[in-house]
Amino acid sequence: MTAPNVRRWARTVRWYLRELTGEAEYDRHCERHRRRHAGAPVPTRREYDVLRTRRREERPEGRCC
Q: Can you tell me the distance from the alpha carbon of 8 to that of 5, in angstroms, rounded to the nearest whole number?
């Protein structure tokens, strides 16, 4: 494997793991928050997780339980 292929493979694995763990979702949320609410503090990861869980429980979308 050449160096560019190794780097591409590593980027792909990193992308997959960030999507799998939800880290990329939090980053996207922070970007939206900064655009829509300039100057307002960005929620911490923990605050974001609490908000996301609350939102999912209040509005179950196609879940059976």
A: 5
